[in-house]
Design a protein that fits this description.
340 residues; alpha/beta; Barwin-like endoglucanases; 3-stranded parallel beta sheet; 17 strands; 4Fe-4S; oxidoreductase; iron-sulfur
Length: 340
């Protein structure tokens, strides 16, 4: 959707983007469309530790202050715990003077524009530079444990005095979940009546394919994060195209060979790896790897972007708008190493 908001001319068109550690070039569906969107922006700013595929296209790259260089506290992960745990910590390393925290970037914009930033505890004054502690107090103004208390504790702590319980009835107890929203039944019927899968053929955009590419995770990285770390690179520098050994043998391909994986929407080059837990007829690859379009020469060092096989204008859910991200019909062709 963001790509369309950038590419579509007219009122409300997105013309500037500040990217905080994200990597749309390898994460958004349809890499060529994403490249066109990034190129059309009048301003692209990336706040990142590394020159990612997206940062390579940026007008400005700002070095962020890393976690050990700044005071901070848990504001997301503590919501996942089954006990009332929180952790306030002070910086333990000297800060790189050329780096900026994310809030500082937004405050500088607020300061120059005169537009205050609204936070739960009230607006952040654009005329007077706040401290990090001021910002944290405004962000966590409604915390059941005051930020002052967590700061004085200075370490992770379970606050047993917080009584976590179900809130009283709000008076709408008779409300019911809508298990079958409008349009869902018709969509299920439409999918059920499709016969393109029942005769053993894999058809997409009126073309026949031999395999389905499915998504997966790799344990040593999180999306596009961690791929640049030396110790994690020892566990792998690419997102292998995992295939059943019988499929590789039938195609005359060995683990480590390069293959061209082509779908109706695009093509990528992958590094094969035999995996007995992958069913025949299936290729399994992790997402958020790779580089800018056309950089096949470093597939062993940077991986391949599976979003090259995804389109968001033809194969998407009509109700949610979610594009097809897995079970993508593809064909395979072995690639000579020197031409990849």
């Amino acid at each position: 959707a963001l790509n369309d908001e950038i590419l579509l001319d007219g009122e409300g068109q997105v013309k500037a983007l500040i990217c905080l550690g994200g990597n749309p070039m390898v994460a958004f569906p349809d890499q060529d469309k994403t490249k066109a969107a990034m190129d059309k922006l009048e301003l692209l700013v990336c706040v990142d530790l590394y020159k990612s595929a997206t940062a390579k296209l940026a007008d400005y790259i700002i070095a962020p202050t890393i976690s050990l260089e700044r005071d901070d506290m848990t504001m997301l992960t503590d919501t996942w715990y089954d006990v009332p745990y929180a952790h306030y910590t002070k910086a333990v390393l000297p800060r790189n003077p050329q780096s900026r925290e994310e809030w500082e970037i937004y405050w500088e914009l607020s300061h120059r524009s005169g537009i205050p930033i609204d936070l739960p505890g009230g607006p952040l004054d654009p005329t007077t530079r706040p401290s990090k502690y001021d910002v944290l107090k405004l962000i966590n103004a409604h915390s059941r444990i005051p930020v002052d208390v967590m700061r004085d504790k200075g370490k992770g702590h379970i606050y047993d005095e917080v009584d976590v319980r179900v809130e009283p009835d709000r008076g709408d107890g008779a409300a019911k979940l809508q298990l079958l929203p409008e349009g869902v039944a018709e969509e299920i019927t439409e999918v059920y009546e499709e016969n393109i899968w029942r005769d053993g053929k894999i058809i997409d955009d009126d073309r026949e394919f031999t395999h389905l590419l499915i998504s997966r995770r790799l344990k040593h990285v999180f999306n596009s994060s961690g791929q640049q770390l030396t110790n994690l690179q020892k566990k792998g520098t690419t997102n292998p195209a995992y295939m059943n050994p019988a499929d590789l043998e039938a195609l005359g391909i060995e683990s480590g060979d390069l293959v061209e994986i082509e779908g109706a929407a695009g093509m990528l080059v992958g590094v094969t790896e035999a995996a007995k837990d992958v069913k025949p007829g299936v290729i399994s690859m992790a997402h958020a790897w790779g580089d800018t379009p056309g950089n096949w020469g470093e597939v062993r060092e940077k991986g391949s972007s599976t979003n090259r096989l995804i389109d968001d204008h033809r194969t998407y859910d009509k109700i949610t708008g979610q594009p097809r991200m897995t079970a993508i019909p593809v064909n395979l062709r072995q690639v000579r190493m020197e031409t990849a």
